[in-house]
């Protein structure tokens, strides 16, 4: 039952990502979808406001809004990564360094894949869709690194208070021993690097890979023959990123990574060849 629940959750997440991504074909749809995903995040709010501006209503203006948001998320990602290198334990630091190297390699290859796919299309809406597909992975990575950096951040230093009474001393000690998340400062952390089963031993992962391969093959069939190697390289680089990241995020996190990739492959497979 638990495995079935994970599979259903993954597919619901993919559906949500596809709906979110579909908003890129409309002028203000992207901003509205972003607001639903993370309404409180200042970068998403600023992008929504930018997309709604009259002087940014053209496709070029909409793409500019997404480009500005991507730059801001890139800054968040870079800052969070530096915090991770500073605060994470050694095993986690090595893991995130490898994950980040793999992510950067994947993104370089993915840019070539996006160009190959969108070269088979015509129309300004596809240019907007391409800009959105470049923004979303940066946003996802920034959120992942920021969350990890927050987990490893040292607790704030306790404020020394003179023990004028036993009650006050006990109270200040209790406050000093608490972390912002409500856990004691000496509480054990979740393991920095997890042992994950091979995907074929995890039903949710196996189901997700089945769906991913279906859309991958659909895209491969629709791509020009000379672009086949570009698709293979991008997918191989993504697999390297996934495998390097899985021990850091666990099996559920691995399914989430695959779910995001399914949404991208589905979208590209439905886009390739449209004139």
UniProtKB/TrEMBL annotation:
Lysozyme inhibitor LprI-like N-terminal domain location: 60-145, 211-251
Domain of life: Bacteria
Compositional bias (Low complexity): 159-178
InterPro entries linked: LprI-like_N
Region (Disordered): 154-193
Recorded coiled-coil stretches: none
Gene3D superfamilies: 1.20.1270.180
Protein name: Lysozyme inhibitor LprI-like N-terminal domain-containing protein
Source organism: Burkholderia cepacia
């Amino acid at each position: 039952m638990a495995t079935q629940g994970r599979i259903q959750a993954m597919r619901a997440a993919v559906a949500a990502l596809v709906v979110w991504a579909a908003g890129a074909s409309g002028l203000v749809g992207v901003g509205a979808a972003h607001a639903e995903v993370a309404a409180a995040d200042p970068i998403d709010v600023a992008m929504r406001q930018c997309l709604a501006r009259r002087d940014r209503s053209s496709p070029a203006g909409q793409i500019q809004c997404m480009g500005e948001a991507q730059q801001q998320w890139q800054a968040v990602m870079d800052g969070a990564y530096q915090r991770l290198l500073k605060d994470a334990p050694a095993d986690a630091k090595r893991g995130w360094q490898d994950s980040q190297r793999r992510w950067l390699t994947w993104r370089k290859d993915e840019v070539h894949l996006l160009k190959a796919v969108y070269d088979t299309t015509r129309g300004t809406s596809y240019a907007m869709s391409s800009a959105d597909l470049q923004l979303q992975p940066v946003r996802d990575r920034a959120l992942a690194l920021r969350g990890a950096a927050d987990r490893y951040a040292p607790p704030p230093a306790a404020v020394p208070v003179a023990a004028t009474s036993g009650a006050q001393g006990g109270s200040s000690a209790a406050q000093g021993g608490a972390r912002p998340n409500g856990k004691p400062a000496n509480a054990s952390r979740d393991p920095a690097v997890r042992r994950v089963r091979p995907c074929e031993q995890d039903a949710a992962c196996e189901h997700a890979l089945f769906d991913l391969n279906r859309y991958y093959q659909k895209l491969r069939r629709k791509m020009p023959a000379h672009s086949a190697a570009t698709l293979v390289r991008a997918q191989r680089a993504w697999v390297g990123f996934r495998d390097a990241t899985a021990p850091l995020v666990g099996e559920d996190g691995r399914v989430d990574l695959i779910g995001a990739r399914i949404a991208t492959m589905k979208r590209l497979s439905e886009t390739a060849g449209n004139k």
